[in-house]
Amino acid sequence: MQMKRATALLCALVITACSQKTAEQQIEDAKRLVLEGEEIAAIVELKNAVVTEPNNAEARFQLGLLEFQQGLWEEAEKELRRSLELGYSKVQNYPLLIKAIFYQNDFLRVLTELENSPEINDTRVVSTIALFEYLSKLKAGEQNPVIPTKRLQREDLLIAQAYQTLESGKPQVAKNITEQFISPEIEPFEKLILKGMIESLMGNHVEAIIANTKALEIYPTYHVARFLLAEQLIEDKQLNRANEEIDKLLALNPNSGHANYLKSLVYFYQNEYEQAYNLANLALQHKAKPALASFISGTSAYYTGRLESALRLLSTAATTLPPAHPVHRMLAQVKLELGYVDEVAGSLDDLNIEPGQGAEIYSLAALQKLQQGEDAETESLLSKAKELDPNNPVGLLREGYILLDENKPGAADSLARALELAPDLSEAWILLAQAKYEEDGLESALAVADDWAELNELNGELLRGIIYLRDNNEKQAIAHFTNLVKRDPDNAGAIRYLMIGEARWDNFDKAIEYGEKLLDLAPNNLQNLIDVVNIKIAIGQEEELENFLKQRIAKFPESDAASSALALIYSRAKQPEKAINLLKGIAEPQSFGVYQALGDAYVSVKNFDKAIETYRDWTQKFPTDSNSWYRLIATYQMVNNFDGALEATQNARRYLPRDERLILVEAHLAASTGRFAQSKRAIELLSEDSSELVNLTHTRGLLALNEKRFSDAVSLLSAYYETNPGFAVARLLALAHAGLGQPNKGLEYLQTEAAKENDTLVFKLISAEYASSYGMYDASIELYNQVLAQKPDDFASLNNLASVYTQAGDLTKAAEIAKRVIEIAPDSPYALDTYGYVLLKQGKVQEGQAFVERALGKDPNNKEIQLHNVEALILNNELTQARSMLSRIRPATPLQLSLHKELKSRLDAQK
């Protein structure tokens, strides 16, 4: 307790001692400390002076000046502005104030501040202010701002000219200008920043590093210079020093996108691809250097085995980076490894790939075209492959496959030639056996197996089993596979054939034995595990599956296949919570099954946000898996996020451009969200005989309605309504009939559907509004009354009903209901407008106008209230104002169009 009292007494004595000094003495002490190199102590002394005498302009200025010199821009601005308000010299103060704002990189605020700049006659100060005004315009993005030549003195003019020249892409000319500097005391910091930028653009990294280092010696807190320094250090491969500078930036803001990008670049050059991948992704999350960060992340993904992620990231980068950038070659490499050969084939010349690889690409592209049924394109691509390298064994292998598939002669010759050049092409041996089987029968095919056996007896035995399967002699095939497994117990191909064969013969115990052996060889192969699970289910071991899969999870903790299968079992048993608890802790799933099971479980418990997140991760990990996209799109639709669904569909089509189901979904979603041109383009991609066109009746009807082809719209939507009745399509049909001048027929559809949904009042409200829009007031009143019978105080129904009575001319009833609406919601612009408009129609102009104007004040962009206000102005004989306001209104609904036309006619009649 005594220690605390002593401390308090000491603090009191210090404060008393400080308070004995005047502000002037404190200012003098601060100046002395500056001369001694104790700037921080001087700042403390000046802060004490400000406490002693808050309105001391000198103290405020000296404090602001010192804070400016320390790079404390925000604090400096505050003190300089206060000293200016207290009457301190504008000549000394104002240029510092402008520069303090400028070095906060708040260039627009500099320009705003200068709009009310004080009058200053000192030419040196005028020049400084003019320079920073010009630089602010340049850095705020103004196109080609004019240099204020007459206000700038020589050195400032050179700085401005150098920046202008640099901005136009002429760094050497800008450097020539800077070599004319002769006054080092004028804006030394800005000159160093300028020099660093010029040298970096010229590729003179060492000079740029020196300039930025010197700039930071002047103002260590100007982090723009530190970013520039770090970039140049990386360019010069001074990676350790770059790391030090980046760490300083990250210490200030760990989430800095640009700093994380630079850090990823350092790791990338150090071949630390895992760290580079993670940091580049963090940079992308903060939208820093999106193209370059995507390149670093994508390339790092490739080197760490994330091929699908690499494809997505590099594709994004390639849309922005120039043709000479290495991203395009890296993207081609990834696409090749993923099988997107057709895309790469079209740009071979630009990628400078050697002929052998080119032949392989073209032959692979030919295979793709074969699978798509484009025979002419297949033949063309095969020809290109042979032109590039007629003796490429892989090209010959694919040629043989294509000829065999098309049942054309020459397949066996191409395959035999491929094997002459590369006897280790296993696929060529299998295809040659098939070609020989189809040409000459079983013995000829077995002769191929014998030839292969001379090179590798085990491969020959495998091929014999495959040939006997092709000949439907399963017993003989199993004998060869069994013999092979005896000699090669880990031959996964033979084991799989045996498992399937034994299962088909109902030898389930034997099938399970082979299945478990197969799983030991490839524990993360989900398809094999599912096959084993299905066999166990077939023999009635479903209750044992949970323990079986848990044992596999414990035995192979690095594999997620067993967890996927168990989660699917839980979901099948309607236990989604158990599936979620099992899978949600897997950080980076390697199997699609984890994403599928987890996402499906989230959907089961209606946690759609988590389901979307999971399915989105699935699409990013396996973007060519159509099931991932279908589930993501469907979940977006479940939560009525149609924009999200459309965006997902567009992303999916980048990877699956010919998927007709996706084209169908895109067409429907685009039309439903008002993107009619996009919807039409999608429909045009479907062939005329596509079965999917039948499913687009609704979408094509919606397009016809948008294009005001009302007859086509009625025909298409009626056909859809017959098989898929519902209020949504009934509403479209009603609008189509209204377009044909048959609104009453449209109302029949709406009333039919609204009557089906007795517990959903919104359909009746929509129908009532439709009826009133087309002058069917009795029907509208009846529908609103049906709603009010269930919800007597429903605000929307009462307010709209009052409006309908007004339109129908029953002003007494309208006023009665409008008063009731005002009592329910006295501040609602809709209630105020409705009541005001009734009063106008009753001839109570002044009173009605007051209500309408109050409504307009609360909702100034409401077109209906605007039109009512114009009518009030006309009734009050304020015609000029009425014309001006009416000219600015663009009516949207039939009712607004009708009222606008009527008001214009009334104004024209009074000219």
Determine the mean pLDDT: 85
Query: In percent, how much strand structure appears in the residues?
Result: under 5%
* Number of distinct beta strands: 0
Label the overall shape. globular
Helix fraction bin: over 70%
Oligomer: single chain
Count, helices = 54
Q: What would CATH call the class of the domain at 23-253?
A: Mainly Alpha
Poorly predicted parts: 1-19
Give the termini distance in whole angstroms: 92 Å
Q: What class, by secondary structure content? A: mainly alpha
| CATH architecture assignment of the domain at 23-253 | Alpha Horseshoe
Pfam family, one: TPR_16
TPR repeats: 57-90, 458-491, 592-625, 795-828
Signal peptide: 1-23
Keywords: Signal, TPR repeat
Structure description:
Helix content is 76%, strand content 0%. The chain is globular. It is mainly α. The protein has a domain at 23-253: Tetratricopeptide repeat domain (Serine Threonine Protein Phosphatase 5, Tetratricopeptide repeat).
Strands, helices and their partners?
Layout: H1 2-19, H2 23-35, H3 39-52, H4 57-69, H5 73-85, H6 90-102, H7 107-114, H8 123-139, H9 154-167, H10 171-178, H11 188-201, H12 205-218, H13 223-235, H14 239-252, H15 257-269, H16 273-285, H17 290-303, H18 307-318, H19 327-338, H20 341-345, H21 348-351, H22 355-371, H23 375-388, H24 393-405, H25 411-421, H26 426-440, H27 442-455, H28 457-470, H29 474-487, H30 492-504, H31 508-521, H32 526-538, H33 545-555, H34 561-572, H35 576-583, H36 592-604, H37 608-621, H38 626-638, H39 642-655, H40 660-672, H41 676-684, H42 697-706, H43 710-723, H44 727-739, H45 743-756, H46 762-773, H47 777-790, H48 795-808, H49 811-824, H50 829-841, H51 845-858, H52 863-875, H53 879-887, H54 894-909
